[in-house]
Amino acid sequence: MAEKPRVLIVDDNSDYLFVMETFLSRNGFDTITAQDGKTGYELAVAEKPDIILLDIMMEGLFSGFQFCKKKLSDPELKDIPIIGISGIGDELGVNTEKYKFIKKYFNEDNFFQKPVDKEKLLAKIKSLLTSD
Hints:
Elements: E1 6-10, H1 14-26, E2 30-34, H2 37-47, E3 51-55, H3 64-72, E4 82-86, H4 88-92, H5 100-105, E5 111-113, H6 118-130
Parallel strand pairs: 1-2, 1-3, 3-4, 4-5
Helix pairs in contact: 2-3
Protein backbone atom coordinates (compact mmCIF):
# COMPACT_ATOMS: atom_id res chain seq x y z
CA MET A 1 0.00 0.00 0.00
CA ALA A 2 1.37 3.42 -0.95
CA GLU A 3 2.09 5.93 1.76
CA LYS A 4 -0.45 8.64 2.37
CA PRO A 5 0.58 12.06 1.07
CA ARG A 6 1.84 14.29 3.89
CA VAL A 7 0.45 17.79 4.29
CA LEU A 8 2.08 20.42 6.49
CA ILE A 9 -0.51 22.93 7.73
CA VAL A 10 0.91 26.17 9.14
CA ASP A 11 -1.60 28.53 10.75
CA ASP A 12 -1.67 30.52 13.99
CA ASN A 13 -5.35 29.72 14.58
CA SER A 14 -5.59 26.47 16.57
CA ASP A 15 -9.27 26.00 15.69
CA TYR A 16 -8.49 26.28 11.97
CA LEU A 17 -5.61 23.81 12.36
CA PHE A 18 -7.94 21.31 14.02
CA VAL A 19 -10.61 21.66 11.33
CA MET A 20 -8.15 21.31 8.43
CA GLU A 21 -6.23 18.49 10.08
CA THR A 22 -9.47 16.57 10.65
CA PHE A 23 -10.76 17.24 7.13
CA LEU A 24 -7.53 16.21 5.42
CA SER A 25 -7.05 13.14 7.62
CA ARG A 26 -10.56 11.98 6.71
CA ASN A 27 -9.63 12.43 3.06
CA GLY A 28 -6.59 10.18 3.12
CA PHE A 29 -3.73 12.50 4.09
CA ASP A 30 -1.20 12.39 6.90
CA THR A 31 -0.97 15.82 8.48
CA ILE A 32 1.67 17.76 10.35
CA THR A 33 0.76 21.07 11.97
CA ALA A 34 2.52 24.18 13.22
CA GLN A 35 1.12 27.32 14.81
CA ASP A 36 3.81 29.70 13.57
CA GLY A 37 6.06 30.14 10.57
CA LYS A 38 9.31 29.37 12.37
CA THR A 39 8.08 26.01 13.65
CA GLY A 40 6.44 25.32 10.29
CA TYR A 41 9.69 25.93 8.47
CA GLU A 42 11.60 23.69 10.88
CA LEU A 43 9.02 20.93 10.31
CA ALA A 44 9.24 21.39 6.54
CA VAL A 45 13.02 20.90 6.73
CA ALA A 46 12.74 17.87 9.02
CA GLU A 47 9.69 16.16 7.52
CA LYS A 48 9.80 17.10 3.80
CA PRO A 49 6.00 17.09 3.35
CA ASP A 50 4.43 16.51 -0.04
CA ILE A 51 2.56 19.83 0.11
CA ILE A 52 2.29 22.84 2.43
CA LEU A 53 -0.82 24.82 3.36
CA LEU A 54 0.33 28.17 4.69
CA ASP A 55 -1.49 31.01 6.40
CA ILE A 56 0.19 34.16 5.17
CA MET A 57 -0.89 36.49 7.97
CA MET A 58 0.33 35.09 11.25
CA GLU A 59 1.21 36.78 14.50
CA GLY A 60 4.86 36.93 15.41
CA LEU A 61 8.15 37.51 13.71
CA PHE A 62 8.04 34.84 11.03
CA SER A 63 5.10 35.45 8.70
CA GLY A 64 3.89 33.32 5.85
CA PHE A 65 5.69 35.57 3.38
CA GLN A 66 8.96 35.12 5.24
CA PHE A 67 8.33 31.37 5.23
CA CYS A 68 7.87 31.45 1.43
CA LYS A 69 10.98 33.51 0.84
CA LYS A 70 13.11 31.16 2.93
CA LYS A 71 11.51 28.04 1.39
CA LEU A 72 12.17 29.24 -2.16
CA SER A 73 15.85 29.76 -1.38
CA ASP A 74 16.23 26.26 0.10
CA PRO A 75 17.17 23.73 -2.62
CA GLU A 76 15.64 20.86 -0.60
CA LEU A 77 12.27 22.60 -0.15
CA LYS A 78 11.82 24.89 -3.14
CA ASP A 79 9.95 22.31 -5.24
CA ILE A 80 7.40 21.37 -2.55
CA PRO A 81 4.03 22.80 -3.68
CA ILE A 82 2.63 25.47 -1.41
CA ILE A 83 -0.91 26.82 -1.12
CA GLY A 84 -1.44 30.17 0.54
CA ILE A 85 -4.51 30.57 2.71
CA SER A 86 -5.51 33.79 4.39
CA GLY A 87 -8.22 36.08 5.60
CA ILE A 88 -6.16 39.07 4.48
CA GLY A 89 -8.91 40.32 2.18
CA ASP A 90 -11.50 40.36 4.96
CA GLU A 91 -9.06 41.67 7.54
CA LEU A 92 -7.96 44.56 5.34
CA GLY A 93 -11.24 44.97 3.48
CA VAL A 94 -9.53 44.72 0.11
CA ASN A 95 -9.50 42.62 -3.03
CA THR A 96 -6.34 40.51 -2.77
CA GLU A 97 -6.01 40.23 -6.56
CA LYS A 98 -4.61 43.78 -6.57
CA TYR A 99 -1.67 42.99 -4.33
CA LYS A 100 1.52 42.07 -6.15
CA PHE A 101 3.19 40.79 -2.98
CA ILE A 102 0.66 37.95 -2.86
CA LYS A 103 1.13 37.12 -6.54
CA LYS A 104 4.90 37.01 -6.01
CA TYR A 105 4.50 33.84 -3.95
CA PHE A 106 1.15 32.41 -5.01
CA ASN A 107 -0.54 32.34 -8.36
CA GLU A 108 -4.29 32.81 -8.41
CA ASP A 109 -4.91 29.07 -8.37
CA ASN A 110 -2.71 28.46 -5.32
CA PHE A 111 -4.18 31.11 -3.06
CA PHE A 112 -7.40 30.67 -1.10
CA GLN A 113 -9.30 33.24 0.94
CA LYS A 114 -10.73 32.24 4.31
CA PRO A 115 -13.25 30.86 4.81
CA VAL A 116 -11.90 28.20 2.50
CA ASP A 117 -14.12 26.07 0.31
CA LYS A 118 -12.68 22.78 1.55
CA GLU A 119 -13.79 20.77 -1.50
CA LYS A 120 -12.04 23.20 -3.88
CA LEU A 121 -8.96 23.13 -1.68
CA LEU A 122 -9.00 19.32 -1.68
CA ALA A 123 -9.24 19.30 -5.48
CA LYS A 124 -6.31 21.74 -5.71
CA ILE A 125 -4.18 19.64 -3.34
CA LYS A 126 -4.88 16.50 -5.36
CA SER A 127 -4.10 18.25 -8.65
CA LEU A 128 -0.78 19.61 -7.34
CA LEU A 129 0.23 16.21 -6.02
CA THR A 130 -0.54 14.44 -9.29
CA SER A 131 1.12 17.05 -11.50
CA ASP A 132 4.63 16.12 -10.32
